[in-house]
Amino acid sequence: MDNFTFYSPTFFVFGKETENQAGEYVKRFGGSRVLVHYGGKSAKSSGLLDRVEMSLDKEGISYVSLGGVKPNPRSGLVYEGIELCKKEKVDFILAVGGGSVIDSAKAIAAGVVYDGDFWDFYSGKLIEEALPLGTVLTIAAAGSEGSPDSVITKEEGMFKRGATGNAIRPKFSILNPALTQSLPPHQTAAGITDIMAHLYERYLTNTKEVEVTDRLIEALLLTMRHEGPRVIADPNNYEARANIMWAGMMAHNNAVGVGRSQDWTSHDIEHELSALYDCAHGAGLAVTMPAVFTYVMKHDIMRFAKAAVRVWGCEMDFDHPEVTAREGIEALRNFLISIGMPRNFKELGAREEDIPKLVEVLCRGNGRNGTLNGFVTLNEDDCTKIYRMMV
Amino acid sequence: MDNFTFYSPTFFVFGKETENQAGEYVKRFGGSRVLVHYGGKSAKSSGLLDRVEMSLDKEGISYVSLGGVKPNPRSGLVYEGIELCKKEKVDFILAVGGGSVIDSAKAIAAGVVYDGDFWDFYSGKLIEEALPLGTVLTIAAAGSEGSPDSVITKEEGMFKRGATGNAIRPKFSILNPALTQSLPPHQTAAGITDIMAHLYERYLTNTKEVEVTDRLIEALLLTMRHEGPRVIADPNNYEARANIMWAGMMAHNNAVGVGRSQDWTSHDIEHELSALYDCAHGAGLAVTMPAVFTYVMKHDIMRFAKAAVRVWGCEMDFDHPEVTAREGIEALRNFLISIGMPRNFKELGAREEDIPKLVEVLCRGNGRNGTLNGFVTLNEDDCTKIYRMMV
What we know:
2 copies of one chain form a homodimer. Chain A is of the alpha/beta class and 391 residues long. Chain A contains 15 helices and 10 strands. The model of chain A has no long low-confidence stretch (mean pLDDT 96).
């Protein structure tokens, strides 16, 4: 196991009706003037925003609101949020929504206390200071409620890039599984896929002897395998929603990913798809992962065979472990299709003729030097082949 | 899943030679005048204490030292530590040792800022305020490095009782698996048993539909099953030590135990043994757990069958699930014996004739009302039968 540090100081409040405690927790963590950041109409029409604002009123906390965060959140709204916070002397940001809203809130939190352009953080600069923020989560997917990460798309060039730093870990995150019951099936399935991708990106490691994190990752994948179809079949199944919600947090706060190299090339390769086509990140990952895994499988057949046996219940073929490895990848692909995810470029809404452009931005955009460094180092030729496998 | 809150703000520093960063982390978390709390000779003779003190010197942090913490730490030394901290105006406590040292440090930390008798906290009062503390861990076992818990034995009456509160979660914990390589096999095995007990106490729940935490607990038990024998066979196996050390933390910071009722009757029943005979807590648990589990098995046969199949690799007997359930308990017992743990009262050094006294203190001591409330409610008659099964 490699040396590491791990720090996850977020206070999690989990369960039914917990959104009514938002004001109480803002107060506990020192907020007195709040930016309520949210997405579209559903937060308003469902009454969620009202309940959250009522809980702020109850504590005598004043606030301004900024809605309009879209999936694959954009830099434009971040700049707007930063200006608004400065003008209104905001001291706490409350994100009410999913990963996109939380990521946008994190970018604003970092940008408000930074003299330069917030995009510096999305070009590699570590976030060391930020306004405190809290979240009220409405979709189990990104894991941003417990992570130090944020992904934003820059409108000029449509670069989709990530930033990180313990300073943007939420002070508290309110997780009410019931809030996710009204999600459309496609969004629910995309969230499930995103969670599974966070697990696979950690599973694909070049570090040896990491049984504890291997087992923990497998445990969360097994949970998704069990609960995913249950929640697709019955969107109102609170228990299945609850298990998925905690699994989603655990998949990405990195407790199960410490001390080992991680992959993240599937995320990189997908990000260009959701940046260009504005598809759901999870839907893009459903098409990307099986292609990437099939392409890199030979790098460590036994690791893929282990996932096949332990997660997907495949029988180990001891004479031909590559057969088992491939079966595991096919089981993942079939699982994702079974919950309603797309299987190829066509179903995703992507176009074969865009591949050269996708590869160019992926491998050369925003300062990259032509390669992706993960489980296997991939160059432009590799990435072209992987995108072609997805057609 | 039940509603819950989860908060684990400890900063973990994991890996080789990390004890040399102790001073740096004390400084980062605001310490300027430190109590270095430790156990016996090994911390001194191994040079660990020197290295830790050198790292404090390097940061210009002054300190006083208090050694002498024994396994099953006593209230006497806690009172002494509280007085010393007050006299020396200590503002940070650094525990260098295992669970006993950390638990003693936590008791001192809570006691220093409390006007009453610190034992109030061990009689049910929640710890809401404490001096900040950090740890340098030397044994993977108690999980106290990442938990809000502490167990102390009161010398008058030999009551062994626990206290809890987020205020005593360590600010940082330094985990260097290499420091555990010099542990005698018995202590290593007792630590492994303690970790597995923390997992079983959480596994035995009456909450339904908790797949995510079931799977996470099973993952950590599988890790112990794999790594335990490896580290007993080769005490210098750093990788096995590292996997066990992270599993030990994860087993007890409660990330895998949230949203479900828990048991803890095996701990209660064992505590009287280590209080009376001063045996290793883990050794007592090795004798206690199989007896308790066999006694309560009928309360939920399928839960024990699940552990048997998923953790111990037993074949499910679909016609007679109770056979599978029993096989899993026997597999646990045999595993613990195989790593060198005692199998009964005699091997533990306990005496059958003490059973009435053990039951009396267990069920009536320190304000208890005659029953233990866990997975199954146990009265004095039940506890007598369980102790008799251990003879």
